[in-house]
Amino acid sequence: MIGYLARRLGQAALILLGISVVTFVLLYLLPADPVRQIAGRSATAETVENIRRQLGLDLPLWEQYWRYLSNLLSGNLGRSYLQKSEVSELIAARLPASLLLMVGAIACELTIGLTMGVVAAVRRGGWVDNLLMVFSFISVSAPQFVIAILLLYVFAVKLGWFPIGGYGTFAHLVLPSLTLGLLGAGWYARMMRSTMIEVLRQDYIRTAQSKGLRGRIVLFRHAIPNAILPIVAMIGIDIGMFMSGIVVVESVFGWPGIGQLAWQAIQRVDIPIIMGVTLVSACAIVIGNLVADLVAPLIDPRIKLR
Amino acid sequence: MRRLLLSGIALAVMTMASPVFAQAEKQGGSMIVTYKDDVATLDPAIGYDWQNWSMIKSLFDSLMDYEPGTSTLTTDLAESYTISDDGLTYTFKLRQGIKFHNGREMTAEDVKYSLDRVTDPATQSPGAGFFVSIEGFDAASDGSAKGLSGVTAVDPLTVEIKLTRPDATFLHVVALNFSSIVPKEVVDEFGADFGKHPVGTGAYSLAEWTLGQRLVFARNADYWKAGVPKMDEIVFEIGQEPTVALLRLQNGEVDVLGDGIPPAQFLEVKDNPDYADMIIEGGQLQTGYITLNVTIPPFDNLDVRKAINMAINKERIVRIINNRAVIANQPLPPTMPGYTEGYEGIPYDVEGAKALLAQAGLSEGFTTELYVYNVDPNPRIAQAIQQDLAAIGITVELLSLAQANVIEAGGAGTAPMIWSGGMAWIADFPDPSNFYGPILGCSGAADGGWNWSKYCNEDLDAMATAADSMIDPAKQADRYKAWSDVYMGVMADAPWVPVFNEQRFTMKSARLGGPDAIFVDPVHIPVNYDYVFDKNVQ
User: Fold this and answer.
1) Beta B214-219 vs B233-238: how paired, if at all?
2) What is the pLDDT of residue A306?
3) How many CB atoms lie within 10 A of CB B123?
4) Residue of A nearest to B211 (CA)
5) What is the residue extent of each domain of chain B?
6) Which residues from chain B sit within 8 angstroms of residue A30, using beta carbons?
7) CB distance A31–B409 less than 8 Å?
8) pLDDT tens for residues A257-277?
9) Domain extent listing, chain A
10) What start-end ranges are recorded for coiled-coil regions in this protein (chain A) (predicted)?
11) Helices B476-493, B458-468: inter-axial angle, 10-degree rounding
């Protein structure tokens, strides 16, 4: 176990290093000059060169990267070019909101996805099953931007049940979580349905039924716990999916998380912020995957760590 | 010999005499303003965004300002000023007893410090270039001297600024955000984080800033202008998608849409009689244009540039943006002094355009590229341009890119054509010179400059310099005529297709009061917060 963990952590460090190199090179190759964004439209050529020198953007790529990496290793993500603030401070101010949103999304996708999967499996082949599978198909394929605006219009503007965007209370959390969670819910519904169908065919279910147990007890005590295990282990992997989703969802709902921060930074070539958010998201994904792998054998003894 | 040009007292009387500000509204109340993008900084030497421009004007003051809702210069922290006969020395007399938000009194030393700071290369101010006419600018900006040798604090209430050449726009320059007066001790205390802890002399002070969420401005009780500002508090909610912000305004949750009415909802809102009193329309010192890169063939041929000017159906483009603009026929917007009245422009004439192309030996047409900022409605406008040019045989490939990429291509001179929408050009100050140097003059044509046509006409540059040397206010009309000649010279060379001048539409809640002009203020963009009042507390 310890050896496995050490190996995985070593791999994680390599992955993060690789991501930092790739992102850095991509940003360098971008046909847009961050210095011009800082210098603005009235700057003289001298001002532009002066800023370039001060930020070290006149250095060769490898030297720029080396500087960045050595700062990073001492825990310094640098200062934003345009906001002039510490990137770590900007991310720290926004990270809790994004995490909260992800927790909300996980709750939504599990509740909705698993329920749909179970119901569909039990009513396999019937119209309820078909309807649920069509719904899961839509929730997987509909653009989150459209879902977000639709939910806002119906539940916030027309019905007034929830606030129109913003951040702060539980009511603010519901619609963005739902938007972000619906995509995963569609996947989970399909997976839960197939594992449930698998489980319901097993001998121990038939035994339970033949013992004369009521359908509900068979379902909740014997079938669902066995079907749910492999799915729960996948939550960690969802974090990667959320990281791309939050950019859209946070922008529409005015949710002050790191997705919004990244989106604004990309538009203005604010390299330190883009790098910072990318590395933080990559960390989250790596950790999510690691936790998923570590938890899996605990809940399903058939899986072994190697 | 020095002449007293304008006394602050006389001006104050004039201002008070105007009917708009005659009634004194009660102070109190609060309002909520929404913006989509984060407020990057509130440091006046650095801030140059849509959302922080007017915020900075409320937190800070400069030597000069403009009458609310107009582009008429007035004194601000300066009580009066004099200009020497040769136009090279400006002497500003400061108001007595002006206090920073931290309670300290502002002096001439602060003015000197602030101007030194904005031109110091370490500050990385995007506005440093505006101060180029001050003596000692070159030495200060290449780091060989600390501070501007031309700026002196004569006594605690007198500042003298020496210029290297007469500059008729200089009073506008000291009214810019970049000229805001900041207290040295606070800048020293926070260093690079001053932009998050701004302290000025303005009508409001920063009370709270939750990064990425909201900012709260509180009324400066010690503000030197009696009865200003009107509100006790302004709350800025950040990160609000314009579509969502509009829904919230309709729901009564917010008061001002900082980013305006989203294009897709514009007609629906504009045609709804319920909102008639909530929408305010105003002109804007803005021109939308197509640049034709005169260094890239065949745009080096005047006939080709004229043909393109004749081929663009500007009426249709204005319709595409729901008539939120007026058709332009010259670089300057109609409300800018120096605008040439009665000029017809290059008329829309498809057959004439084809004839000109044939004359240039291009009757078969040619293929070229048009760069455009990828945010609505700009790609749709670019498509209209593409269709118009197809009608005269020119095949246009659209490159719809992020703003930074378009600006890069424009500055590097690799873009044959650029549609300027969403990037350029809103005037920094209401003077015709501001539409020339950076975007049409030779200096802006250098690598990385904003003159994306790479157009450089030395004769016009000389005329422009001559016009800006006419500092005598009695000759102002002559100066504007000189500028009008410069822009007519530009039109003769046709490096641009001027397409339209945007109109601004601000939407506000019904309970907000104040003259319409301050909601579409030409200088305090987008809204002059200091004069907005709450009808409910009256």
Assistant:
1) antiparallel
2) 59
3) 19
4) A93
5) 286-502
6) 405
7) yes
8) 999 999 889 888 899 999 999
9) 2-79, 95-267
10) none
11) 170
Smallest Cα distance from A276 to chain B, Å? 16
- Rounded CA-CA distance B506/B376 in Å is 18
Looking at residues B320-339, what average pLDDT do you find? 93
Q: What is the pLDDT of residues A51-109, one digit of tens each?
A: 899 899 999 999 999 999 999 999 899 999 988 889 999 999 999 999 999 999 999 99
Question: Please, are residues B397 and B369 in contact by the beta-carbon 8 Å criterion?
Answer: yes
How does DSSP classify residue B425? -
Mutate to test the interface with B, among A29, A30, A42 (most CBs of B within 10 A): A42
Q: What are phi and psi of B534, to 5 degrees?
A: -100, 115
| Tens-place pLDDT, residues A124-159 | 889 999 999 999 999 889 898 899 989 998 998 889
What type of residue sits at position B12?
Answer: A
pLDDT score of B9: 40
**Residue in B closest to A154 by C-alpha:** B247
CB B166 within 8 A of CB B471: yes
How far apart, in whole angstroms, are the C-alpha atoms of residue A85 and residue A93?
12
Which CATH architecture describes the domain A95-267?
Orthogonal Bundle (1.10)
The domain over range B286-502 is classified in CATH as 3.10.105.10: yes
Residue B5: what pLDDT?
A: 41
Q: How far apart are CA B109 and CA B159, in angstroms?
A: 8
| Least CB–CB distance from B241: residue in A50, A93, A252 | A252
As a whole number, the mean pLDDT across chain A is 88
B-chain CB neighbours of A156 within 8 Å are: 247
CA atoms of B353 and B15, how far apart (whole Å): 51
Task: Assess A39–B contact: CB distance below 8 Å, yes or no.
Answer: yes
Residue B383 is encoded by which pair of tokens?
A: 């498509």
Judged against a pLDDT cut of 50, whether residue B215 lies above it is answered with yes
Nearest CA in chain B to A83: B40
Task: Identify the pLDDT of residue B23.
Answer: 54
- CA of A235 to nearest chain B CA: how many angstroms apart? 28
Chain B residues whose beta carbon lies within 8 Å of the beta carbon of residue A252: 241, 244
Over range B302-326, report the average pLDDT: 95
Whether chain B has a CB inside 8 Å of the CB on A218: the answer is no
For residue A248, give the chain B residue with the closest CA.
B241
Would you tell me the crossing angle of helices A144-151 and A235-253 to the nearest 10 degrees? 60
- Top-confidence residue, B271 or B11: B271
User: Is there a contact between B114 and B185 (Cβ–Cβ < 8 Å)?
Assistant: no
